[in-house]
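Hi F.,

I've been meaning to write this up properly since the lab meeting, where we talked about keeping a consistent format for the predictions we share between groups. The idea is simple: the sequence comes first, exactly as it goes in, then the structure tokens exactly as they come out, then a line or two of notes. No screenshots and no reformatting. I'm using this chain as the first example so we have something concrete to point to.
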Amino acid sequence: MNIGPCSFPVAPLILLANIGIALWVARKASHGGPAAETTILYSVVAGLLASRLAFVGQYLPAYRGDVLKMLDFRDLGFDPVPGAVAGAVVLLVMVAKRRDVRRAATLAAFAGCASWGLATAFADTEAPAASLPAVNVLDMNGNPQPLAYNDGKPLVLNLWASWCGPCRAEMPVLAEAQRDFTQVDIAFINQGESEAAVNGFVTEHGLVLHNLARDPNLSVARAVGARAFPTTLFYDHTGKLLAMHLGPFSRATFEQALETLYPKTVRGALH
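Output, unedited:
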């Protein structure tokens, strides 16, 4: 989802809507009897906590002992399998103890899961370009250059702008990742800003960025169907698009993306 050119992750909005649907079904299915909403809420909370704890445990070194970052759910770092198991276990235990809410809680859980599946299936209706666009961008000297580096490495393409808050927040994370994961080309393509604006931002924040370029006409954004920033695209070494991510990364969620999409390439460099 986006408002103007800034991106907002869709998954949390879908989750909130699904929880609302489940609670509504629980209330309606109770028919004035014992409420099942509490059972659903306990199941959801248990699932979210287990999902978050599993993710943090898996990528613990990326948080570097920062407890506040571990607790910050905004990076959307979750491991869905432990979460689903924990939520299901809590639901089963509670309905086993409260037979009077069994039917309502079961219907509510089914409604929530079904609505989640339908919503996520239709969340992305417009497919991005399947391969690296054949467009030129400008290097920081104003010279045109292609997006492809032709060095046999996978390419991570980050589309950003200095006025975009989420872009500003993730830039130090990606700059550090560029330094640490040299097996992958990470390129920063500024969208629609002047050379002075880009240089000013980089200098102000003390960033060391390689593969920095400008796209003053937003040609790349249009070619890949990006309508919000930051947008990060992951290509394999042949230029085939593997994934498209809207919104900012934390160190942990970026490592997760690299591990998922380039398991052989970055093996040994993670954690």
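Notes:
The first strand starts at residue 2 and ends at 3.
The chain has two domains: 2-123, 136-261.

If this format works for you, I'll send the rest the same way.

G.
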